[in-house]
């Protein structure tokens, strides 16, 4: 790979009776073959980022119809042994009836309870990305709080 490549990744949460789970794939190909990872991949030339992440999510897991919100960009050199990549990450919550089916370059696709994911479990820098996405999920589920904690003067 020459230059910097742009990728997308999806963090999809599903509320199950056992608690919150995240949709992960088992990588079928190097690098990190056999390791768990977030669904994602390279953006095609001329492809818009939201289209790319929805495409990758569907190709690798069969999951569609998830409202995805951009979480952030991750581009630390060395995050991908194939070369310098910058990943634009999206996150969302899927319907509890979601049943992933592996496709494309995913050997498996499954829902993994958050409590079963330890440090250094995921490929690339996906542990850090998942941590950021869990924080975003928690923020989204908090009741509205005042923007400022300063007392108002009347």
Report on this structure.
The structure is a single chain. This protein is of the alpha+beta class. The protein is 19% helix and 32% strand. It has 2 helices and 7 strands; from the N terminus they run ββββαβββα. It has helices spanning 49-61, 126-141, and strands at 5-16, 19-27, 36-37, 40-42, 69-74, 85-94, 106-113. The longest helix is centred in the C-terminal third of the chain and has 16 residues, at 126-141. The chain is globular and about 45 Å long. The N and C termini lie far apart (61 Å).
Rg, rounded, reads: 17 Å
- Average pLDDT, rounded to a whole number, is 92
Distance between the termini: 61 Å
Category by helix and strand content: alpha+beta
The number of helical segments is 2
- The ordered string of helix (H) and strand (E) elements is EEEEHEEEH
Major beta sheet, specifics? 7 strands, mixed
Helix fraction? 10-25%
Q: Which spans of ≥5 residues are poorly predicted at pLDDT below 50?
A: 146-154
Shape: globular
Q: What percentage of amino acids are in beta strands?
A: 25-35%
Q: What is the strand tally?
A: 7
Which key terms come to mind for this protein?
single chain; 154 residues; alpha+beta; seven-stranded mixed beta sheet; 2 helices; disordered C terminus
Short description:
19% of the residues lie in helices and 32% in strands. It contains two helices and seven strands, in the order E-E-E-E-H-E-E-E-H.
List the helices and strands and how they pair.
Blueprint: E1 5-16, E2 19-27, E3 36-37, E4 40-42, H1 49-61, E5 69-74, E6 85-94, E7 106-113, H2 126-141
Parallel strand pairs: 1-6
Antiparallel strand pairs: 1-2, 1-4, 2-3, 2-7, 5-6
């Amino acid at each position: 790979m020459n230059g910097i490549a742009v990728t997308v990744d999806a963090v999809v949460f599903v509320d199950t009776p056992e608690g919150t789970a995240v949709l992960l794939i088992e990588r079928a190909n190097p690098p990190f073959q056999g390791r768990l990872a977030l669904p994602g991949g390279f953006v095609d030339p001329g492809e818009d980022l939201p289209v790319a992440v929805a495409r990758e999510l569907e190709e690798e897991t069969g999951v569609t119809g998830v409202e995805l919100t951009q979480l952030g960009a991750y581009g630390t050199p060395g995050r991908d042994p194939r070369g310098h990549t910058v990943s634009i990450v999206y996150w969302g919550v899927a319907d509890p009836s979601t049943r992933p089916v592996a496709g494309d370059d995913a050997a498996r696709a499954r829902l993994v309870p958050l409590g079963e994911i330890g440090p250094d479990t995921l490929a690339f820098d996906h542990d850090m990305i998942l941590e950021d996405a869990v924080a975003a999920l928690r923020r989204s589920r908090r009741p509205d709080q005042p923007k400022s904690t300063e007392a108002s003067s009347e």
